[in-house]
Write a structure and sequence with these properties.
69% helix; membrane
Length: 416
């Protein structure tokens, strides 16, 4: 006999079900086409995942978007997903792989675009200010000026790879039998309009993005932070907007707020502890002299051109990250690269940025990141699928970084 859920658990489950139902129907109805166009549907799924991952950590983004993706796949015949031998069954299985891989990789790619997208970027900012406090800090807007173009290049490569490898001329015909736009729109209309709480969270979220982007603009246009003599940072804005969630009512009769401490306790606080541990390990590496010993192995880069230094650092980090999490890789690699930059006489960011980006190119194995584990755990993909699809993305990432860092990165971070 199934266990009875507590009323609060039932309420939470209903909210999550409504979100997933609304999300998968909106994405499918907007992008599927009539008849179904698989490449546009993949664009909608991957694009939505990438955008969300820009503003929240990529692991929660994957956890949130994977049920939306699998909700779309549940409209396809289960017998063909599990072992049908016909051509239609193969098309369904191939498209299902593309959807799951798209969510996993788009989440990782979107996280590169902003400081809030992944812990690796936050670790980079923390270690940069720790090792080089006299240097100009990396801000939200400066990193996004470099990270967003990098992410867009990888996103185009992801979409092209999925379309070429997993979509054929027959895919649209097969999917059209199960995905109908008019039917999806009728189901979506039954969910009703956005609730007051959803609108308020969206408004707070939009305000947070605007404040992040306008705090510091250019040398000629300082941004709103000048009103406070530059004594406010991105963290100040985040705390202020998060506080509003505890104040604004959700529109319920019982006086419920958009956020309360009961929900807040369930956040992934271990990520914060991991970041703090990373800073402590970095100081330990520096104080013990271990960075000098380990960085000597990369001493051959002394005198090498920028076009050679960046890809080597990216590949070095990208190899390690396939066997450990991206945050752990960034924590271990960045102290070495920071000391190496000082010892060989190059700008440290020419090594540290590739180290942080390379740690996020964990596309080949499930062990590379928690997001990979989430996708692998769905049962739709295998390790072979990840290797075959992830290898081209890894190559594109290294090549894109090789050309973007000495050009755009030099302008954004002042490495000239």
């Amino acid at each position: 006999m199934p266990a009875t859920l507590h009323p609060d658990q039932q309420k939470k489950k209903l909210k999550l079900t409504l979100f997933r139902s609304r999300s998968d129907k909106q994405i499918t109805a907007l992008f599927c086409g009539d008849p179904v166009k698989p490449h546009l549907l993949l664009l909608g799924i991957c694009g939505t995942t990438m955008f969300i991952s820009m503003w929240i950590h990529n692991t929660p983004c994957t956890v949130m978007m994977m049920p939306v993706a699998t909700g779309i796949l549940q409209r396809l015949p289960r017998d063909e997903l599990e072992g049908g031998s016909g051509s239609d069954a193969r098309e369904v299985r191939r498209f299902s792989k593309a959807v799951v891989l798209g969510v996993v990789y788009a989440s990782a790619i979107g996280g590169m675009a902003t400081l809030t997208g992944t812990g690796a970027n936050i670790i980079l900012v923390g270690m940069w200010s720790t090792y080089f406090p006299e240097q100009h800090p990396i801000t939200f807007s400066s990193w996004m000026s470099f990270g967003l173009p990098m992410s867009l290049v990888l996103f185009v490569a992801l979409w092209a790879t999925l379309c070429l490898m997993y979509c054929s001329k027959n895919t649209g015909r097969v999917l059209s039998a199960y995905l109908d736009r008019s039917h999806l729109r009728r189901e979506l209309s039954l969910l009703g309009p956005m609730a007051f709480a959803e609108k308020m969270v969206l408004a707070v979220f939009g305000g947070l993005i605007v404040l992040w982007m306008t705090r510091s603009l250019t040398n000629d246009i300082p941004g709103w932070a000048v009103l406070f003599d530059g004594k406010v940072g991105d963290g100040t804005v985040t705390i202020m907007m998060a506080t509003l969630l505890f104040i604004i009512p959700s529109g319920k009769d019982d006086g419920e707020k958009l956020m309360d401490w009961g929900k807040c306790r369930k956040l992934q606080w271990h990520i914060i502890l991991l970041l703090g541990a990373g800073f402590a390990i970095a100081d330990g590496f520096k104080a013990s002299g271990l960075t000098d010993i380990l960085s000597s192995g990369l001493g051959f880069l002394k005198g090498a051109p920028a076009l050679a230094i960046a890809p080597v650092a990216c590949l070095f980090s990208g190899l390690i990250t396939e066997f450990t999490s991206d945050d752990a890789t960034t924590t271990l690699v960045l102290p070495l690269l920071a000391e190496l930059g000082k010892s060989i006489g190059v700008h440290p960011l020419l090594l540290m940025v590739p180290g942080a980006i390379g740690a996020q190119l964990s596309f080949l194995l499930p062990t590379g990141s928690p997001g990979n584990v989430v996708g692998f755990g769905t049962g739709y993909i295998t390790i072979k699928d990840m290797v075959v699809t992830g290898m081209p993305l890894k190559v594109v990432g290294v090549v894109a970084l090789t050309f973007l860092l000495p050009t755009l990165g030099s302008l954004v971070f002042g490495m000239a």
